[in-house]
Design goal:
By secondary structure, the chain is of the alpha/beta class. The chain has nine helices and eight strands. Strands 5-4-1-6-7-8 form a six-stranded parallel β-sheet, sandwiched between helices. The longest helix has 22 residues, at 65-86. The radius of gyration is 17 Å and the shape is globular.
């Protein structure tokens, strides 16, 4: 296989934004008196990569769809504004590895995040020139598997020379639904049902070596 196109998940794969966004969730939910204790960054581990609407419904059992949507509108607006100014934490080796890979591969992002979230990531770290395209649930209201399909069709990508890179079972399932090879980031937030899954990377900087190996 000659891998030319790399499609990345965002949270748990390229960065960790929990410390930034948890403050916003606590502020908004606290303002509406909807939580009894403040959420901690580790409380969000189980939710990273999921749809925001599903996260709110799980954190606040019994909340109506209408109220959940109103809360999300507040949270999303604050997240995009704050992440644009403060960013999150890049995993070790992400910047150098992405810049190296961008010289030989086309890079893309598909995430279950809201509209504006990927844009904040790209603009804060000045990565716009590294990525050819991206797609999000917030922009299309479609599941990750469909957004991968949309991005591949839009950029005329083939399953023969593309790979999806992520850290959750949803990432794996979405890649396989499109016939895509998958690389698992073991350092991220999720786990796979196949605990011995390969190929996987222990650190983002391992990706360059792995891609080179499977391309030969």
């Amino acid at each position: 296989m000659s891998t030319k196109h790399l499609i990345f998940d965002l949270d748990g794969t390229l960065w960790d934004s929990r410390a930034t966004i948890i403050k916003i969730w606590n502020e908004v939910l606290g303002r509406h008196q909807l939580i009894q204790r403040e959420l901690k960054p580790e409380d969000m581990n189980q939710y990273m990569g999921l749809l925001a609407h599903d996260i709110v419904k799980d954190i606040i059992p019994g909340i109506s769809d209408l109220q959940a949507q109103a809360l999300l509108s507040e949270i999303v607006a604050e997240e995009n504004k704050t992440l644009h100014k403060q960013g999150g934490i890049l995993y070790d080796g992400v910047e150098n590895t992405l810049k190296s890979l961008a010289s030989t591969h086309s890079l893309f992002i598909v995430s279950n995040c809201q509209n504006g979230y990927i844009e904040s990531f790209l603009e804060y770290y000045q990565f716009n020139d590294l990525f050819a395209d991206f797609e999000s649930h917030g922009r299309t209201q479609k599941p990750k598997s469909k957004n991968i399909q949309l991005l591949m069709e839009r950029n005329q990508l083939s399953t023969d020379d593309s790979v999806y890179i992520g850290d959750t079972q949803t990432d794996y399932d979405s890649a396989k639904a499109n016939g895509l090879p998958f690389i698992f980031c073991t350092y991220g937030f999720g786990k796979l049902s196949d605990s011995l899954y390969e190929p996987s990377i222990l650190a983002f900087s391992d990706l360059r070596t792995l891609i080179s190996a499977v391309t030969k």
